[in-house]
Amino acid sequence: MNTKLKSAPRWALSALSLALLSLGQAQAQTPPATPNGGASAPAAAAPRPPADPTALKPFAEISKDFKSQEGLFSIWKKDEKVLLEIPRAMLNKPFLFTVNIANSIGERGMYASQMGPDTMAEFRLVGRQLQLIAVNNKFRAKGEGKESVAQAFSPSLIGATSVASADHPERKSFLVDASFLLSDIPGYSTRLEYAYRLPYSLDKSNSSFAATRAEAQLATLTGRMHFATARIPAPPLMPTPVPMPTPPQSVPDPRSFFVDYVYNFRALPDEPAATRPIDPRLGHFMESYVDLDSDVNPNNRVHLLNRWRLEKQDPSAALSEPKQPIVYWMDKNIPARYRKAVEAGILEWNKAFEKIGFKNAVVAKQQPDDANWDNMDATHASIRWFVGADVGFAIGPSHTDPRTGEILDADIGMSDVFARGSRRFLVEDVLTQGQSSESKLAALTQGWKEGNRFAAQCNYAHEASAEMNFAMDILEARGDIAPDSPEAEAFVNSVIKDVIMHEVGHTLGLKHNFKASTVVTRAQLQDKAFTEANGISASVMDYNAYNVPLKGEKTGSFNNTTLGPYDYWAIEYAYKPIDPAAEKAELAKIASRSTEPQLIYADDMDAGVGGPYDGMDPLANRFDLGDDPLAYFTKRLALSKELWDRVQERGFKPGDDPLRARRVLLSGFQQLGRGAESAAKYVGGMTALRDLPGTTGRPAFQPIAPAKQREALKSLTSGLFSADSFRFKPEFISNLRVDYNEWDRGGLADIGGAVARLQLGALDRLMSPATAKRLLDLPGYLAEKDRKGAISLAEVYGSIQGAVWSELKTGAEIERLRRNLQREHLKRLTTLLTKGGPLPADALALVRWHATQLQADLKAASAKGGSVETRAHVAESLSALTEALRASMSRV
């Protein structure tokens, strides 16, 4: 039978099937006879089909005994188990996904309370695999190019997990195990490796969820992530050419520590906010993308201004409350004595919003001490107060809707070391030295969005604390202020307000403005009434130095306490309510005010960020003050000398901290380093103006006047390069103590090294390829009549060489500090003579020309007398230079 059936044609099998079916139906309709004619027996129950082993278990069965938190994605918890509920309506629907760092290890950039990356994401279901996908927003198209853009530019997979339950019968949603989030989604292990050069990995088996919260527009889960490395390698037997960082010092065992990730799933607004275009004459952060809908525009990049959604309750009123104010929650960890200063820094911005018709646009609220929510979630803009072993900065990043640039969240991180340091600097109980890379490392924990990168790297508070250190040393040395006095307390609070104003400005969408300090004249800085009413700069978004007067000068305000005219203007452009039909013309009208002197603007790139962007405009600086940055450098040199003289005259008193004098000494050097960089910018410098083409007739780039360039060159060669600027009494140097209670106690004060670092910063700037190229190109920017008196690269090289090696002409003894400087200059010459480097060809020819002249001067000097040290130094220098001049250049 089976054989015949297998070989039968399909139609035969079908006929057979129909016959069997008919027979079955007939038998079913004719009940069988019962024995003895009795009633029929009950029919046997039909067998249940076997269960599908691949079927998902019911929603109710999987969630049994779990407690739920209802929200955008509801969260179900039972003991350590956490489930996410995914409505099918949310599949393929974008939302904002962010990762913040709530807790960390407290050193080398690994700090708590830091905003992390954000991206527009969506859940996609592939079979029974749920994928968390980062949507690619860098390239966009709405029209016929939409499909080709989707094919050309891939999204990214953030995480994935299997579906854990069948759909809920009413809600049409399913459950997934949330443990897929217990992974290193933000890539923190890379930052750890950057900081420590150790291969830390996330240990999922010892990671868990520390907290969860859900509401209508939000689901947030805090994962306590365990990072570990199997072993700490032994240090090398011989020192490496590049010093290696130590393992983490702030944890009990450097092989193991925990970091808290705050994962936020936040709903994007149903109605996208109105966009506003960027204008380069002002500084706002932006959302940028490439628009591939059109191939007509010469530049198809689109830049959308970042701003909060701010709408009047009463659009017809001249002054109206907003429908939804911008609310900043002050962290419950902020010390009570500083809360009013923090609040004042927040609310100061209401002055700018009132000018454009908003009343109470910005609101400050205090997080209750018993609050059960973490303000690192994506719905509470906050001022976070955090601590660290080596930290001293504030930072003001934000998260935005990538579709429009609307700011949705911001978390300002304020290091407590800054406030505690304000008082600590006054009582002088620690040595404050420059941090090497923690600000850069802290920036790595932030978002890496293109337009927001400089907010992430804002180290204003750290640098301002060093400024304050210098200011307080001077004022105390003069007897103008005493530690723990009411004046000192007021100073501390003014510092905090200043920093908070700056960081809140970032979270409102404003970039740095490093030309604002040049608006206020030197005379106005000495007018207390003026500075109290107008501040010491045109913007709180500058890195403003402390307004410390020279002895005998009048005293204005020490730091910024109010918004400047630029701040009002930038807020007006971003937030002024404008009829969409008239927006283009009105925005152009607002931006056209850029020619007003008080509204001058320059960002981080103008001030210099390294590489080809060396900061060619000497008016764009960090931590200068007044309308003449060169005069400011001269003033800071005088203030540093005064500080050094006073601390030497004071001597050492019983009860002094052992590091007091050393700290004061280094404070003066730090200030000079900033000023020297600003002064060196004048040589080969160009002023840059941001006028749009055809709007003003002013040149976009204008060389610095030759007289000013020569003045800057002379101030550096006669001041900074002079040994007379750095003379200290032997009894002072010999009493620069160390702290014997500290393991890393240091040693003898390296005055020579401190002087060299200061001088070499200016020397490298003067001899840089960028400076050389601008000086060689200078004639092309000048009319024929102006070229005769222009400064040349030959003049600059000759001036540097003449100043550095002046003793060769005079026959004077060459002191150790001068020998150090000469060696460094010679090192740069010999490197260029033998390797060429990136200098233009004409610059290399001039280097050789001046090196030949220096060789002749060294030969003449070698025949003269002097100490053994001087004669040995001259002989060594002559030998090294002669070998370099004979060598063939090895171009790489």
TrEMBL record:
Protein's UniProt name: Zinc-dependent metalloprotease
InterPro entries attached to this UniProt entry: DUF5117, DUF5118, EcxA_zinc-bd, MetalloPept_cat_dom_sf, Zn_MMP-like_bac
Organism: Inhella proteolytica
Pfam families listed in its UniProt record: DUF4953 (PF16313), DUF5117 (PF17148), DUF5118 (PF17162)
Signal peptide: 1-28
GO molecular function annotations of the record: metallopeptidase activity
Species classification: Bacteria, Pseudomonadati, Pseudomonadota, Betaproteobacteria, Burkholderiales
Keywords, sorted A to Z: Hydrolase, Metalloprotease, Protease, Signal
Keyword Protease (UniProt): yes
